[in-house]
Amino acid sequence: MEIEEKIKLAKLYDAYKPLLSKGQIDVIEQYLSYDLTISEIAENLGISRQAVLDSITKAEKKLVKFEEELSFVERIDKLMKELEIYKNKKG
């Protein structure tokens, strides 16, 4: 996964984490926060590599769907850009 994709996924995860299952949170947390490999996550959780991949894929689809429906992260990004513009005009 490209770094830009991981950053986008991390933003979505931060915004919508409470809407994921515990298992998805466990996997995504290790994948994003600790930058562990699929094999390392599988070993840590005592599950197969395929289960880890499935969990990441399903969680990512869920997070993207939430963002498509709610646009929370998009709105925050827009507000942050506007705040930066405002700060630059004042300074």
Annotation keywords:
91 residues; mainly alpha; elongated
SSE inventory with pairings:
Blueprint: H1 3-16, H2 22-33, H3 38-45, H4 49-70, H5 72-90
Helix pairs in contact: 1-4, 2-4, 3-4
Would you mind describing this structure in some detail?
82% of the residues lie in helices and 0% in strands. The radius of gyration is 16 Å and the shape is elongated. The protein is built from 5 helices and no strands. α1 packs across α4 and α2 crosses α4. The protein is mainly alpha-helical.
Q: How large is the share of residues in beta strands?
A: under 5%
Largest sheet: none
Mean pLDDT comes to 96
Order of helical and strand elements: HHHHH
Please give the alpha-carbon distance between the first and last residues. Answer: 38 Å
Question: Helical percent range?
Answer: over 70%
Q: pLDDT under 50 segments (min length 5)?
A: none
Number of helices: 5
Please tally the β strands and state the result. 0
Query: What's the oligomerization state?
Result: single chain
Structural class: mainly alpha
Please give the radius of gyration in angstroms. Answer: 16 Å
**Basic shape:** elongated
Can you describe this structure in just a few lines?
The protein has 91 residues and is mainly alpha-helical. The protein has 5 helices and no strands. The longest helix has 22 residues, at 49-70.
